[in-house]
Amino acid sequence: MSEEKQFFVPPGGPPRVSAPSPEIYAAMGDENIFAMLADFYQQLEASSIRGMFPRDMERASRKSAAFFVGLLGGPPLYHQKYGSPMMRARHMPFPIDEAARQVWLDCFEAVLADAPEKYSFPPEHLPQFRQFLVAFSGWMVNKA
Fold first, then answer.
1. Distance (Å, rounded) from C-alpha 40 to C-alpha 51?
2. How far apart are CA 86 and CA 43, in angstroms?
3. SS3 of 5, please?
């Protein structure tokens, strides 16, 4: 008898939140988004969820930055290089529970704290971007 693997599905299904404003990309550009994600991955590298990430964190940060460039209103770099994001499916191999999600959010929050000064992140768009991250990360949870 084969054991079927059961995945946790977050209540409410996929996130129902607006995509971040394209004005974010207009203000930041590729260079600042890549720098912000590099700093985010440095936070992740020092975190308790480090084991969920590949050995080459610099490469992982660039891949993630390509996703965020498109998400924030820039060219679809991730799609061009890696295909459709299908983020929930791509995260399924990793057991992500609520505690791991909170660590991920805390790492992002540490980077966003000085994002307007450091990366030209438009401060007026930070609240909505944070809402997006909360909803998006909730959909990545796959373990109760």
1. 15
2. 24
3. coil
> Alpha helices of the chain — where are they, by DSSP H?
23-45, 57-71, 77-82, 87-91, 98-112, 115-119, 126-140
Q: What is the structure's pLDDT at 98?
A: 95
* 8 A C-beta contact, residue 73 and residue 23: yes
The separation between the first and the last C-alpha atoms of the chain, rounded to the nearest angstrom, is 24
> Closest Cα partner for 87 from 103, 66, 73?
66
Q: How far is CA 67 from CA 58, 70, 73, in A?
A: 15, 6, 10
Q: Specify the residue for token string 């912000």.
A: 36
| CA-based nearest residue to 33, from 22, 44, 49 | 22
- Cα–Cα distance, 141 to 134 (Å, whole number): 11
Helix pair 98-112, 126-140: axis angle to 10 deg:
160
Give the pLDDT confidence of 115-137 residue by residue, as tens digits. 999 999 999 999 999 999 999 99
Distances (CA, A) of 8 to 1, 94, 106, 144: 22, 12, 22, 6
